[in-house]
Amino acid sequence: MRLFRSGEVLGIAAETLEFALEAAGETHPNEYMGFLRGTDAAELNLAREGTVITDVLVIPGTTSSPESATVRENLVPNGSNAVGSIHSHPNGVLRPSNQDLSTFHSGDVHVIMGAPYDRDCWRAFDSEGEPRELDVLDVALPSDEEFFDFDQSDIDAELYE
């Protein structure tokens, strides 16, 4: 089992996108914020090299209002394997603000969702804030049991490859 992901981001799992849109709707009228994590495409039985976004990591202590969401950087876990970020714009504007652009430095994909948070109310951007394609992939996500099924030998194998 691979613990650390790499490679081009191929897309986002449909189930992950649905989760984020629903969470953003529940947080409305405040902004929603999380980090995107991925799984190697081979682990999802895809015949392509790269990473598929499969997880949204919500950081404890994140504060939000209708205008912004702020993550306490000191609470982001080391090795969170983030491939980007995801957040909502309650006003429905699907383009990055200047404040958003200042946070896009980490990761390859940044997703903005807007009210009313349905399947068509989101856009993906690169680290420069330029629109980018992000396919929605119908893949079976690993179960939580599989995610936590590793031991020290797996970690050592990853660290010393």
What does this structure look like?
The longest helix is centred in the N-terminal third of the chain and has 14 residues, at 14-27. The protein has one domain: Cytidine Deaminase, domain 2. The protein is globular, with a radius of gyration of 16 Å. The protein is of the alpha/beta class. It contains 4 helices and 9 strands. Residues 10-131 form the MPN domain.
Short description:
With 161 residues, the protein is of the alpha/beta class. The chain has helices at residues 14-27, 98-103, 144-147, 152-159, and strands at 9-13, 33-40, 51-57, 63-64, 69-70, 82-89, 109-114, 122-125, 135-137.
Considering the chains and any ligands shown, give keywords for the structure.
globular; 161 residues; alpha/beta; 9 strands; disordered N terminus; 28% strand; seven-stranded mixed sheet; Cytidine Deaminase, domain 2
| SSE string | EHEEEEEHEEEHH
What is the end-to-end distance?
A: 13 Å
Low-confidence stretches: 1-5
CATH fold name: Cytidine Deaminase, domain 2
**Biggest β-sheet: strands ordered side by side in the sheet:** 8-7-6-2-3-1-9
Rough outline: globular
Strand content: 25-35%
What is the CATH-assigned architecture? 3-Layer(aba) Sandwich
Q: Calculate the mean pLDDT score and round it.
A: 83
CA radius of gyration:
16 Å
Helix content percent band:
10-25%
Helix/strand-derived category reads alpha/beta
Q: What's the CATH C level? A: Alpha Beta
Number of strands: 9
Q: Biggest β-sheet: count, sense, barrel?
A: 7 strands, mixed
Domain MPN: 10-131
GO molecular function, one term: metal ion binding
Protein name: Mov34/MPN/PAD-1 family protein
Keywords: Hydrolase, Metal-binding, Metalloprotease, Protease, Zinc
